[in-house]
Amino acid sequence: DTGVSQDPRHKITKRGQNVTFRCDPISEHNRLYWYRQTLGQGPEFLTYFQNEAQLEKSRLLSDRFSAERPKGSFSTLEIQRTEQGDSAMYLCASSWTGDEQYFGPGTRLTVT
Amino acid sequence: GENVEQHPSTLSVQEGDSAVIKCTYSDSASNYFPWYKQELGKRPQLIIDIRSNVGEKKDQRIAVTLNKTAKHFSLHITETQPEDSAVYFCAASDKKAAGNKLTFGGGTRVLVKP
User: Fold this and answer.
1) Cβ contacts (< 8 Å) between A100 and chain B: which residues?
2) Cα angle for residues B20, B22, B26 (degrees, 5° grid)
3) B77 FRET partner, CA 20 to 30 A, in A52, A69, A105, B16?
4) Which residues contact B41 (CB under 8 A, 6 or more apart)?
5) pLDDT tens per residue, chain A (112 residues)?
């Protein structure tokens, strides 16, 4: 499968714990995006990388959230001190042109 | 920033009929408008897109139209089939932001009744 992959697919954690998600983009894509989707809503932009540089962050991305793309390939999204409001589907997308973005299957986070 | 509104939120059609979903956007600088289909529990899938230098684009049973003056765009699905049942999202790309981040509408749940 040469599409965008994400790991894990599901994560259940207790409030206050830290979690980390991984995204592997389509191999030749230099642009990588993180979005968050809550039930019944469209995805909301969180952050964007071009190669290893994080070029934009949404106001939704509080200081408990951090993302990295150290070698310009895979990316990680970490949430510290999780809260129940963090429960959502975290989607990663990649692109070569910046227009056509291809999504991964997402990581569903449940904070209990 | 960009704001995208999508209507209707739910749409029920008889198999073989047409379905139309409409979106409006607020930022006149946006110039890329994709449509995604998301089946239950699956990833959003890009099904068609249009750029602002084009007024209409068609791909088999789906078509998208864009009215830049009115800042609205629409998805048309003809000869609907049960496998068209899904949630459809429109989006607009904010060109002023780095990387063409997408702003999505709230989604339309389409149910095609056999």
Assistant:
1) 34, 46, 49
2) 170
3) A105
4) none
5) 579 999 999 999 999 999 999 999 999 899 999 999 999 899 999 999 999 999 989 988 889 999 999 988 999 999 999 999 999 999 999 998 778 999 999 999 999 9
Alpha-carbon distance of B13 to B85, in angstroms, equals 10
Quote the pLDDT of residue B22.
98
pLDDT tens-place string over residues B53-103: 889 999 999 999 999 999 999 999 999 999 999 999 999 997 666 678 999
CB-CB under 8 Å, B36 with A48: no
Interface of B with A (CB under 8 A): 4, 6, 32, 34, 36, 42-46, 49, 51, 89, 91, 93, 97-107
By residue count, chain A amounts to 112
Using alpha carbons, list the distances in angstroms from residue A53 to A73, B51, B88, B91, B109: 11, 27, 31, 24, 36
Taking alpha carbons only, the member of B46, B18, B62, B60 closest to residue B104 is: B46
User: Rounded CA gap, A62 and A59, in Å?
Assistant: 7
**Cα–Cα distance, B86 to B76 (Å, whole number):** 14
Q: Given an 8 Å threshold on Cβ–Cβ distance, is B89 in contact with A99?
A: no
